Amino acid sequence: MSTPDASSPSSQPAGSSQPTGSSLPTATQLAAQVARGELSPQQALRSALERAEAARALNALISLNPHAEQQAAQVAERLAAGELLPLAGVPVVIKDNLNLRGTFTTCGSRMLEGYLSPYTATAAQRLISAGAVIVGKANMDEFAMGSSSETSAFGPTLNPWDHGRVPGGTSGGSAALVSAGVVPLSLGSDTGGSVRQPASFTGVYGFKPTYGRVSRYGLVAHASSLDQIGPFSRSAADLALVMGVIAGHDPLDATSLNAPASFQGAQPLPSPLRVGVVTESLQGNTPGVQAALARMLTALESLGASVQEVSLPSTAYAVAAYYLISTPEASSNLARYDGMAYGVRAAAPEVGASMGAARARGFGPEVKRRILMGTYALSSGYYDAYYSKAMKVRQLIAQDFARAFERFDVLVTPTSPFPAFRVGERSGDPLAMYAADVDTVAVSLAGVPALSVPMGFEEIGGNLLPVGIQLIAPALADERLIALAGALEEQGAVQMRTPGPVGS
Question: For residues 240 and 495, what is the distance between their CA atoms, to the nearest angstrom?
Fold first, then answer.
C-alpha cells in the first residue's frame, strides 16, 4: 500500500458495528505461538496484511513497510538460532511520525510527502530487536495536531465501531488498527491526550507513560516538553510486554530518564489502594460516560480500594495553558519546514517567497492555525502575557497533582466526557475540538503517566460506542497502572470487544 491519494474516504458507505467478542490472540499469546513453532513469523505477517486489506475502508494505514517480509524472515532465523524474543513475530503498526529506515514518514502532511526515513526511531528499533514485525505506518492528524484524525492530508481515519464517527486523535490510525483486530499492538504519540482519547473512542487500552520513560529519538516533534510515545493494546499483559521492550534510558534522547523498568512479572498494588476521583471531571459527562465511571469505581472498591473525591483546582485552566504552551513549541519545531532544508520545495523568484509558498502548500489549515497562535504567543510584548503565564499555570497544575498523590495512589477521571463524535461535527469549530481534550491535557502538563481503560459502551443512534476511563499515577509509577488494569481484567470489569467483521 503506497501513500494514498488525498481524497477523503467519506464517500464510502458509513458502517456500524456491534461487539463480537474477543477471540483474536493477544501479542503475548501470538509471541508464544511463534516461539513454540506453531506459527511462523511470515504466517503472522500475512494474516495481519489480510486483515489490513479487509479494514481498508477505515483509512487507518498510510503506508506498508516494504521491509516487513525481510523482518519476518530475520525473526525466523533468530528463533532458529535459539534467541529468546519477547515479541517474536508479533505484527505491529507505528504512527507515521515515527521514523523507520527505508520507509516514508509523512506525519500525515503534504509537507513531508515522499520523505524517506534515513534512520529508525529508538522505540521502533527496540520493537524490531525484540522480534516484532512492523507492518506499516498509521494515519494521524497532520503533525499530531488535532483531536479526531480528520486533519491528515491523506483523508480522515474512521472509527471501526461506526464509520460515520471519528476514532479520536491524533493517533487515531494506531488505535483503529488495534480496535479492528488488524494488529494486537501499535505505537502512537501522546502530547495532550493523543493516545488516551483515541483508545477511549475505539475501545482499547491506551497508555501514556511518564514523560521521559520512553525515548523520543526519531519521533517527529510536535511540542517537545509534552510529547511521549505510548502503546495501544487489547490486554494489560500486552501493555506490560511492550513497555518492557520500549521503556528505558536512551543516550540519544536528552530527556530520556535513567529509571529502571520492571514491567514484567507480578507488580504488587499498594494495600489498601487509595483512589481519588477528580472532582473537576465529574461535570459535563454523557450518561454513558457517567455509567462507565460508576462501574470503574465499583470495580475498584471490589478490589479493596478506598474511594474519595479530590479537587485539582488549577486543572480548570489546563486546556488554555496547554494550547499556550504546545502551540509556541510547535511553531518553533515546525520552523525547519521551509522548503529549503526540509519539506516540499516551491518555485519562486526569491527565497522568502519560496519559503512562504512551500509552507502555504505543504501545511494544512489546523497546522497553520497553531503555528500562527504559537508565533503570536512568543512575539515581543506578548510572551509574558501568554507563554510565560501558561508556564506558571503548568507549575500550579503539577503541584495540584503532587498534593493529591500525597493522599492517593491512583486518580480517576473519564478519558473523554463523551464517546466518539461524528466526522465533521467539530472540525469547523476549533474551540469545540480543543475542548475534547479537557480530561487529558492536565496529565500531560504534569508529566505523569495515565492509562485509558475500556469500561463499557454508550448507545447513540442505535450504535454502541466505546467509553474509556482514565487512571493516573505519580511519575514513574507506570507499572502500578498496568498492574491495576490486570487486576480489573481478572475481576471481569474491563469490557474489551472486537467491532465489525474484521477479526470476528
Answer: 19
d(CA 324, CA 365) in angstroms, rounded, equals 18
Asked if 450 contacts 213 with a C-beta cutoff of 8 angstroms, the reply is no
Q: What is the pLDDT of residue 358?
A: 87
Per-state percent for the chain, helix, strand, coil, to nearest 5: 40, 15, 45
Give Cα separations from 139 to 6, 68, 107, 171, 319 (angstroms): 12, 18, 8, 7, 25
Phi and psi at 155, nearest 5°, equal: 95, 155
Does residue 280 contact residue 411 with C-beta atoms inside 8 Å? no
Crossing angle of helices 236-246 and 122-129, rounded to 10°: 110
Q: Which of 193, 250, 259 is nearest to 226 (CA)?
A: 193
Q: Can you list the domains of the chain with their CATH numbers?
A: 24-271+452-491 (3.90.1300.10)
DSSP code at position 182: S
Residue 61: predicted pLDDT: 98
CA dist 482 and 475 (Å) reads 14
pLDDT for 18: 53
Contacts of 349 (CB under 8 A, 6+ apart): none
CA 361 – CA 217 distance, rounded (Å): 28
C-alpha of 474 from chain center: 20
Q: What is the DSSP code (8-state) at residue 255?
A: T
Burial 236-271 (b: 16+ CB within 10 A, else e): bbbbbbbbbbbbbebeebeebbeeebebeeebebee
Which residues in the chain show pLDDT less than 50?
A: 1-15, 20-21, 502-504
Question: How many alpha carbons fall within 13 Å on the CB side of residue 184?
Answer: 27
**Whether the Cβ atoms of residue 86 and residue 31 lie closer than 8 Å to each other:** yes
* Preceding peptide of 170 cis, ω within 30°: yes
pLDDT of residue 503: 38
Cα–Cα distance measured from residue 210 to residue 230, given in angstroms and rounded to the nearest whole number: 10
pTM of the model as a whole:
0.94
| pLDDT at residue number 3 | 40
Q: How many CA atoms lie within 13 A of 154 on its CB side?
A: 32
Show the beta-strand stretches assigned E in 339-488.
410-414, 450-460, 463-472
What is the structure's pLDDT at 1?
Answer: 45
